[in-house]
Design brief:
mainly alpha, 2 strands, 71% helix
Length: 227
Amino acid sequence: SYYHALQQADRVLITLERRRRTMNTIVKDVISTYYRALTAQKYLGRVNSLLAEANRALTMSRNLEKEQAAPLAEVLDNQKQLVTTIAQLKRIQSDLKQSQVQLAALCNLPLDQKFTLTSKQMPLPAMKHPVDAMELLGLLRRPELREERYQERIDIAAVKQEIIKMFPGIKILASFNWDTNPYLVNQHWAEAGVQVSASLLKMAGTGPTGKKAAEARQQMSQMRRLA
């Protein structure tokens, strides 16, 4: 029960690390999406105008093909380049529009609500600690590594559990008794004893097997953390 309680405490810590990792991911997603949406706000109009100009150029090229006003090979090569350019512009246009929708979703804004982003330059914060020390601190507090460390402690406790299960159980008995029967020589008496029980199956078979399996899980968690 003691080792089981330790395992449950480590599982709670694992849940907290997963929550912290999720919060970090949300913050990074918001920052990344903000700058992509700011880029869309600046350049979406330019991309739209370029796309319209490329479509007009494609229409003119097809008219030249119909009128046979230029060499066919040159016209078709020009159309191929224009089609490739239009496809790239449409992909860029879709990405820019999608970034605005994603930012609205991350900020819990209605998807059809119009908003304007500011591009004010923010001053960089002063670094109070050396870069090497901050990198080491970031590595030590990385949620994935801390989660694997807690999982390793859970596996270590499981090994100890399997070892304890192979030990014989000891129970101490003690009682004070009283009887109203007047024909008894002694109406009050006390008794005490020790009861020892052991499972031969656990000691000889399942115990060592369970211990080896728990040790294998511990080694696997170590390798996963190192990886």
